[in-house]
From TrEMBL:
Domain of life: Eukaryota
Protein name per its UniProtKB record: PTB domain engulfment adapter
Lineage: Eukaryota, Viridiplantae, Streptophyta, Embryophyta, Tracheophyta
PANTHER family associated with the record: PTB DOMAIN ENGULFMENT ADAPTER (PTHR36342:SF1)
Length: 186
């Protein structure tokens, strides 16, 4: 994978800021969804979903809006809002069979998602560093080679976030540091 990024685009306009954020795990409606929301509210670190957010140094164009799309190639995300969220999750996270497969330790089809937000989340979002490269370009290239067979503990949102942050800012195992800094709490 390192060879893919050997000629990464150098950032000419300044340093892009890189953040990690925690969000509730998605689940089927009913008790499972209530359990995931409660776990997130109680800051249970192991029951949270992690994403990487890039805030470009240059301001967004006017009329920013929230966008969401699935990353299927090495094409860059639309350039019309303030922050870009990079995410890896099950292809069908609200399907009961997906949940059962994940709980049993089996691999499920995953998907890399990229979406735009007008601003950073107000809570559970941590600055982890600045990228000397064009962070969106590097993340787009990272997505193009990411294995999408998701297996909790082996190739999941944590591995994705740790890998992307390491590539962008050079810090290994950023989620472990954030966990330790917060005494295991989100």
């Amino acid at each position: 994978m390192a060879a893919l990024f050997a000629k990464a685009t150098v950032l000419a306009r300044g340093k892009d800021e890189v953040y990690v954020a925690a969000t509730p795990l998605r689940a089927t409606k009913g008790p499972a969804k209530l359990l995931m929301s409660t776990a997130y509210s109680l800051n249970l670190w192991d029951l949270q979903h992690f994403v990487v957010i890039i805030k470009p140094n240059s301001p967004p164009p006017p009329n920013s809006q929230i966008l969401h799309y699935q990353c299927t190639s090495d094409s860059p995300p639309p350039q019309n809002s303030q922050v870009t969220v990079f995410d890896f999750q099950p292809k069908d996270p609200e399907n009961i069979y997906t949940a059962l497969a994940v709980i049993s330790g089996r691999a499920v089809p995953g998907v890399v998602l990229v979406r735009k937000l007008s601003k950073l989340p107000r809570s559970k979002c941590w600055f982890v560093g600045s990228s000397k490269l064009d962070a969106v370009d590097v993340a787009t290239r990272f997505n193009s080679v990411w294995r999408t067979d998701l297996r909790v503990g082996h190739n999941d949102c944590r591995d994705y976030a740790n890998g992307l942050v390491e590539l962008l800012v050079g810090e290994k195992q950023v989620l472990e540091r954030l966990r330790k800094d917060r005494g295991g709490q989100g």
